[in-house]
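Q: what does this look like with zinc ion bound?
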Amino acid sequence: MRYLVISDIHANLEAFDAVMAEAKSIGFEKVLLLGDLVGYGADPNAICERVRELNAEGLIRGNHDKVGSGVESPEGFNAVARNAIRWTYETLNKENREWLAALPAGPLIVDDMIEICHGTPFDEDAYVFDDLDALRAMHAARRPLCLFGHTHVQVGHYLSRDQFGLATADDHRPLGIPLDDANRYLVNPGSVGQPRDGDPRAGFGIVDTAAKEMTIFRVEYPISKAQARILEEGLPDVLAQRLALGR
Ligand code: ZN
């Protein structure tokens, strides 16, 4: 099975379309989506509709989906995120808001090899920022390949019998990560719509379970168009500016 793995679209339609076009040219069979469809970006309704059409094999919610659909309050969001999520809540139509509110919480077991979560397998809202977080997440995972999002940083960790390390130490993209049966893996495919690892290109991944390999990609998209949409909707300027920086 070839799974397309996407996360943190954040209502960025231009980035989503670029990722889907690239992924289709590479080839995949099913889609896994790790949450945060909305929040920050200017096209939450269009993204909900596009994602529904994907008929994803695995689809879980992120923290912005919860707040944007009214499941949770924006308590804990900073001022800019709060402004954008209020706008998102008011802009979503009823059908899309109800659909988002009904998305399941992670973690979700996909098959014998893969499980998906938004933040970590032990807490959907927790962040994996350092090695200790990564180890804790790997120990909580019930499948050898745990896919996560939330940090908007494209990264992969592996744990073998005697070693813990970065499977993505190489900056080159696309980058193949061979999936050894004896090891465990924790991989973030990066954010489609708001990368924060210094590379403004949209991130995504493809897992090939038969070939036992995950590949992570970056793809260019029309950033200026996504920025113009954010300003057009009256969302905070900084949300447009950060897209060009990938921060
Ligand atoms: Zn996010």
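The first strand starts at residue 2 and ends at 6. The chain has one domain: 2-244.
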